[in-house]
Amino acid sequence: MKRKGGRSLERQRAKWGWLFLSPWILGISLFFVWPMIQTVIYSFSKLTVGPNGFETSFVGAENYLYFFTDNSFFYNNLVTSLWEAIPSTLLIITFSTMIALLLKEQFPLRGLARAVFFLPVIIASGPVISILETQVMGNGAAMGAETATHLFQAPDLTLVFADLGVPEKILESITGIINEIFDLMWKSGVQILLMLSAVNNIPGSFYEVAMMEGATAWEKFWKITLPTVSPTLVVVVIYTLIDNFVGYDNLMIQMITDYYKDTHYAYSSTVGLIYCVCVLAVVGLVSWILSRVAFYSAE
Questions:
Q1: Nearest Cα to 198, choosing from 161, 231, 245, 164?
Q2: What domain range is 82 assigned to?
Q3: Could you identify which of 71, 77, 85, 230 might form a hypothetical disulfide with 251, taking C-beta atoms 3.0 to 4.6 angstroms apart as the criterion?
């Protein structure tokens, strides 16, 4: 009877699981599968505008050969987009973890501080982010452009301190760091929320035992905090990687958008597919590595 009851409970849980997954499955089926199939078809075709709309003619791997052999911007944009996501992800993860540990503590106006760090997520959830990308960021300039774009620009310190004799390169570096601070806070809202939830779920008894053993704050972090939140950290790393790969300042995203705006849909589809495969490979590799080193209490 226990087995039967156990199986019945498992079936009920499975039904609820499928129920919660059904909107996602429906959305994927309606809004992703067919567009993805069309993208694959377009990447192997030449598109022309005819009297009945778009007409496709099969050209094989011609579009792919163009980008791998003739396009001078493709390799540079691809390598830059993939490589720059790594230090950016590490910086965001470090910042989010530090802020989560600070927000866990009791201090005046703690609720306001949490709201400030999560505010960019609320703003970026609607049409506001589109306005910021196009008007504030000046997004989608040129396919080969590598100019640094930031959500909020710091004042040009080379003009402010022109008479102080400070080298221009040092001032440009300081300006870049200030600009990155705004971007860092803007991109860390979800990560801070996830890490805050993880650190708040660490049992207080863990730290009490560590205090009795005379552990320092540094030892508590490496021996208790980090291993306990490592499963959440895996999710946060994957989320941050993908967020950087599709960010408003990503060169490959700008390249795809530029081709689309210029009605080069075949080229846009080809670049999108190549970039998608590269992103999946990187995310899969990182997920596999982190999952092997993460600590799961059930084990």
A1: 231
A2: 36-293
A3: 77
CATH code, domain carrying 227? 1.10.3720.10
Task: Decide: 233 and 191 in contact? Cβ < 8 Å.
Answer: no
Q: Please give the pLDDT value at position 299.
A: 47
How far is Cα 100 from Cα 157, in angstroms, rounded to an integer? 32
Overall domain count for the chain: 1
Name the 3-class secondary structure at 58. Answer: strand
Dist. CA 215–CA 207, nearest whole Å: 9
Q: In the block, which residue shows the tokens 């000046």?
A: 138
pTM attached to this predicted model: 0.74
Q: Tell me the per-residue pLDDT of 277-289, one tens digit each, with 9 for 90 and over.
A: 999 999 999 999 9
**Is residue 13 assigned to a domain?**
no
Phi, psi dihedrals of residue 142, rounded to the nearest 5°: -135, 150
User: Does residue 3 form part of some domain?
Assistant: no
Rounded distance between C-alpha atoms, residue 167 and residue 97, angstroms: 34
Distances in Å between the alpha carbon of 94 and those of 24, 74, 82, 240, 250? 31, 31, 19, 12, 21
- The identity of residue 184, as a single letter, is L
Residue 155 burial class via C-beta count within 10 angstroms: exposed 0-12, middle 13-18, buried 19 and up: exposed
pLDDT digits (tens, 9 = 90+) for 9-21: 788 878 888 888 8
CA distances from 89 to 31, 107, 206, 244 (A): 29, 29, 29, 7
What is d(CA 52, CA 38) in angstroms, rounded to the nearest whole number? 17
Placement of tokens 């089926």 in the chain:
29
Q: Are 129 and 187 in contact (CB under 8 A)?
A: no
